Amino acid sequence: MSKPYVLGIDIGGTNTVFGIVDARGHVVASDSIKTRKHNNFNDYVEELHLEVMRLLKLNDAEEKIQGIGIGAPNANYYNGMIENGVNLPWGNNVALAETVSRAFNGIPVAVTNDANAAAIGEMTYGAARGMKDFIMITLGTGVGSGIVINGQIVYGHDGYAGELGHVIVKRNNGRMCGCGRTGCLEAYASATGVARTAREFLELRSDPSIMRNLDIDEITSKDVYDAAMAGDKLAKEIFEYTGKILGEAFADMIAFSSPQAIILFGGLSKSGDLLLKPLREAMDKNVLSIFRGKTKVLLSELKESDAAVLGASALGWEAKYRADVAINSQIISE
Amino acid sequence: MSKPYVLGIDIGGTNTVFGIVDARGHVVASDSIKTRKHNNFNDYVEELHLEVMRLLKLNDAEEKIQGIGIGAPNANYYNGMIENGVNLPWGNNVALAETVSRAFNGIPVAVTNDANAAAIGEMTYGAARGMKDFIMITLGTGVGSGIVINGQIVYGHDGYAGELGHVIVKRNNGRMCGCGRTGCLEAYASATGVARTAREFLELRSDPSIMRNLDIDEITSKDVYDAAMAGDKLAKEIFEYTGKILGEAFADMIAFSSPQAIILFGGLSKSGDLLLKPLREAMDKNVLSIFRGKTKVLLSELKESDAAVLGASALGWEAKYRADVAINSQIISE
Known about the structure:
10 strands, homodimer, five-stranded mixed beta sheet, 17% strand, alpha/beta
């Protein structure tokens, strides 16, 4: 077995992407299945196994997989379960790690949530290479986060740490958030949040904007971006508003863990200086003086499609390592 | 050398307390000197050394000290310096670890800030024994914090992480904070903050209070506590206001690191249910649902006078261990 591989699996709300990854982080081959095709979890794992085996065979890699890493919404690193997987069709308390490991003849499996997987990918292969302290913020439909301290993902005592999309940025009269509370960062700084800001601004104000030609109920963050790039003043203000809220929130995160960098990931992070300029200004203005100028705001260096698979694959090596350590301790204790 | 000891030193703004501590966390003997007697740092260390040696001799422990741990405001674990030691008389950039180690014939020294030292003390000998994830919040003149994740103090990339007294709790029209910004937790939830709330309430409102018999400019958190215990409604409301702000801030901290407990330390934490009841209510009400009911709010189990010395002493064992590892790696590499 000259070239060991791991398998990285990213279970998203729509697609499940899996990749064969070598020790240097090269995705040898990848493919995907539909996440929602089966309402029964065992059927889903059976199809996943079938398709993965097909890909392994094509790449002459059936005997080479050392470990499997999986990123999935609400997947818990400690117990290998998906708990409260609201975006997934299999109900609560799915034994993810155990079921997948069994399907693959006992290959060791480790799981974590998707935001943590992206952070592991960034640390192992992306913009956070060599960093021991950073925070990864995913600006997508929601706002996710993966926190790394002392070179380790922060899981907290229950496996669910790192919900920075749900720190409160508006204590009074804040927007409703999907979590049931009001004023969360996610309600403002996600792609959805930007669209909500656009609707608020367009309804409450009367200054001209090319966005007034759009159906206000269908407006997206992409529409706001396009308008801002075309020079629309109101659209630019929406990004300033969003960046300011993010920068203020980042200043508080820095007071917690003093990271070397905060790394942005996800669709909205591609807005460039429209978002980054007001974000950095607000962060510098609001951060405690001993931290000023120290924490970089960087963009992810991984392709969005690769990051979670690469991160999951890095977790696959960890699963292999943990299994080896467990076996060795058993040998020693015998 | 049958019984090894370490030395724990707590450098406070007024007193420097030092104790000889055994491996089980028993303070064999302790004493103190005045921190501000010498404006020259070398003179200060000379006196400290003299007094420590006297105490060691009295306890037949001159040859037994394995390591020295020091807690001091703004002391940096990574480089052993006190940087920006605003409350201390020796200027910026004092080589604390190096100077003390030299005075003590090369005994290994490790330093950290006072809030982290208290957290280490609590983890090693107090309410956080056995916990790998907790946050220690010191409610004193200011609000300090020591954060433990995966069993390790969070130092951040620069050694200064854990400034939770300076997260922003009032984004608009917040109170001035000693740090130069406005709206910090410390400006509301410290002993000083409680006194400020009392002044605000007494000036802006007209309902009766026994505190109106006091000189409003001299009012302290102790006065507010005494009034509340005597049944004063306005004084009780001040604790409710303070507890609510703390509980809301704690809910955001939980979203970051999902700690098993938040442990309160310092004078104001002794206010009992006056503070704890509204604090816990606000925390439960504001925390993200997946964390609800999981994080305990506990009181420190260490005497305030002992906590920092014990924490520093635990760091002394770490200093000894680090020195041994460094020597062993050198032997191996030779």
